Amino acid sequence: MNKTALATLLSLVLLTAPAVAQPNLVATYKDWIVYKLNLDGDTVCYAASEPTDKSPRSVNHGDVFFLVSSWKSGVAKGQPSFMAGYPLREAPEPVIRVGSDKWEMYTSEEEGFIDKSSDEKRLLAAMKRGSDMRISAVSERGTATNYTFSLLGITDSINRMEKECR
Predict the structure, then answer these.
(1) pTM for this prediction
(2) Cβ–Cβ contacts within 10 Å for residue 96, how many?
C-alpha cells in the first residue's frame, strides 16, 4: 500500500476547503493505516485500508478505500464509509458482508454510508471479530464490482483513532 498516495487521496476527499491540508500518518496496524488531520479548527481521525482483491479484474476501479472516521468535535464517531474510484449507482445499494452479517449502504456520488448509528456500531463490532469484509457495488455505468478488505489490524486502528480524537 502506497501510504503517501493514500494520504494525499484521502486528504482531497475529506477536505472541502480551498487549501488542502496534509493528513499526518499516526500509525500502521497490519492492513490498516491511521491518519489525523486538522480541518477548519477540528481534528479528524480515520483508519483506512485498500481492498486486497477487486473484481472484475478487467475494469479500471480507480482508487478504492474503506474508512472509519471520527471527529474530535463529535460531528461523527466511528463512521464507516466505502469510497469507490467511480460514481456509484443508487440502486441496487452497495452491500457490506462480514461473515454471514450484511448491511446495505446509501450512496452519495462515489461514497457509500450506513444509514443508522446502531448499524454502524454493529458493523464495527463485526469488523473487529472478522478476518475479512466483502463489498459489492454497481457503478453508475452498470458494472457490478466486488471488493475484499482484510480486517487484520482494524481493532488496533480503531482504538488508536479513538485515542487520537478524544
Answers:
(1) 0.87
(2) 25
